[in-house]
Amino acid sequence: MFGWLIRRVAASVFTLVAVTLAGFGIVRLMPGDPAEAYLRASHHSASLEAAAALRTEMGLDQPLAGQYLRWLSAALQGDFGTSFTSKQAIAEEIASYFPNTLQLALSSFVTAMVLGLTLGTVSFLHQGRTLDRAGKLFASFGAAIPGFLLGYVLLYLFSYRLNWFPMLGKGSAAHDVLPSLTLSAIYIGSLSRLFRASLLEQADQPYVRYARIRGVFGARLFAGHLLKPAILPMVTAAGLCLGSMLSGSIIVENVFAWPGIGKYFVAAVANRDYPVIQMCVLLFAAVYAGIGLIVDLLYCGLNPVIRWDEGGKKDEA
């Protein structure tokens, strides 16, 4: 196991470096000059001389390789630089925005898991009937509708027309409802179909058929023989969902004016704020890689059948 863990961590570190390198290159290909964008946003004259001086101050006149190595070296020491736009330390700004994104992601995650498992169970218990077909339709709808469109529809119906929930911003628990539903909608359907398929697979196993022969039915059969093995694939899906919600909250946060990392990231893109963009890319990649590692360890802890061979690969004993 130790060898596998070392390889897994090394792969995650390699992924993070590759992502930061790709992100560094992509933001440099974005149209526009961050120095000129900053001068215009500050209502200063965007003359050639002023832009050149500011570019030197920002370090943008240095070779790209040198810029990347300096940024990566500073990031490894915990110094994520200063925002071109606000002139504030990026680490402090991230620390103020990230709890809001985490709150939105966790509430959406709980919503997706509870509704996904519930709908999956209902579909399994009503195979081929109306509720099962309705579950398939809901899954297709959730996967097809864009997040921003669903967000605007929910705002129009439940905030503007019915006035049930606040429209924008963050405050009371009521502010969490519509953003959480919007962010979780795409995952509820897929989780429900995955759980239904997992239950169907387990229901066809010999030990389940033997339990039926012994007279085990209903809730006892479901809880004692189907639930635990069927829930294992959901562990991986849950980890992927949580990672996707943390990094995929960008659109939802901007639709609902939620003060999180996503809104901060979009503002940085609009202002060509390179250090902020690079830090957000690194943060999203680190969260995703970290959750993936935790899910692998959790999965193997829940399923004692899995072991690691000497080459570090996972096998089933």
Quick description:
The chain has a two-stranded antiparallel sheet with strand order 1-2.
State the fourth-level CATH superfamily of the largest domain.
Answer: MetI-like
The arrangement of helices and strands along the chain is HHHHHHHHHHHHEE
| Terminal residue distance | 14 Å
Look at the structure and give the mean pLDDT: 76
Rg on CA atoms, Å = 24 Å
The helix content is: over 70%
Strand content: under 5%
Question: Main attributes?
Answer:
single chain, 317 residues, mainly alpha, MetI-like fold, 2 domains, two-stranded antiparallel ribbon
Per-chain topology:
Blueprint: H1 2-29, H2 34-41, H3 48-58, H4 64-76, H5 90-125, H6 130-144, H7 147-161, H8 174-203, H9 206-213, H10 218-255, H11 261-270, H12 274-302, E1 306-308, E2 314-316
Antiparallel strand pairs: 1-2
